[in-house]
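Human: Here is a favour to ask of a fellow structure person. Comparing notes only helps if you start from a blank page. Give me a protein, with the fold worked out from its sequence. Please set it down just below, with no commentary around it:

Assistant:
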Amino acid sequence: MNPAPITCARAARPGRRFLTGLWLVLALRMAHQPVAAQTPTIVSFTNSSAISIPFYGQASNYPSVITVPCLSGTLQKVTVTLSGLTDPAPAFVEILLAGPSGPGQAVDLMYDQGSGSGVNDVTLTFDDEAAAPLPANGQITPGTYQTDDGIDNGDNPPPTTNALAGFIGTVLEGDWSLYVFDSGSFPITTSGAISNGWSLTFYYFPLTQPGPVQFSSPQINGLGQFQATLSGPEGTPVVIETSTDLLTWTPIATNDMAASSVVFTDTNAPTNQLFYQAVVLSPPATVQFGSPEINGTGQFQATLSGPVGTPLVIETSADLETWTPIATNAMATSSVVFTDTNAPTNQLFYRVTTCP
């Protein structure tokens, strides 16, 4: 594996003086290294399976699901695109988006709009920054629109918000569900479809991992040994490697950062010129629950233990088969107390998963 650029320092033979401008090389090796973004990261997911819409009742895929894999971060914006909507009476087509937390986190995309005109193979994108929602009456044309501006109780699960902004700050990872229902347009009995499926686009800030570990204050001590200070996040696993040519590297020590600043000494005095580098390993994806309890307010509470900075998702289940994410975060310290602020009304199982 070719290391990407941490700090590397050169040690001289005992008795030699360091050059005035000590040469530093940056080298870093991390298998998973998201960095704090100045602008949101944009990623899209698609379910291209056609959705058949009957002249009355639930669509063929009810709901149609897009499963977002382990994607940890802070959601800033989401848009939805329906590709190839055809229906003789779109005003009777109710379309609702529900997030990973289920129908309790949902918004109507379309409801009672486009009365009087059918649509044929139109692509619609729903974006809070669009100029207006779909027209209540008249022809629906391809374009970008706001979601339905009301909270209506139709035949789908009830919406809880009237804008996609209602998803801001919520969990990204999990099942996003599109519910499509035709409430009937008698005497029209022609069915419709979303022929090319639908897609989601997320704008989010990824969770950050621990930063690099760096050498500083390199010197040859009184015993002729290389010595330097390692600085970095506590708990970060580090390998110290040496090289004589900057091409072939040999590990000489492996350890975790016991503190944010650690003095490293190569107890074998070098007999020739050596280069040193600190290689940061991927933190082990191991976060565990401990001390589970129901606190004084009836809420589930437990201690999470694991490497600082590890992105994780807390999930719950009533049957150990279907799991619903309820929180996404990163380990701020090696031990964090988690509280489910929604007191469970029935038996729930909890688990923590980490992102690769």
Q: What stands out?
A: The radius of gyration is 28 Å. The domain at 288-354 is CATH 2.60.40 (Immunoglobulin-like). The first strand starts at residue 7 and ends at 11. Confidence is low (pLDDT under 50) at residues 1-38.
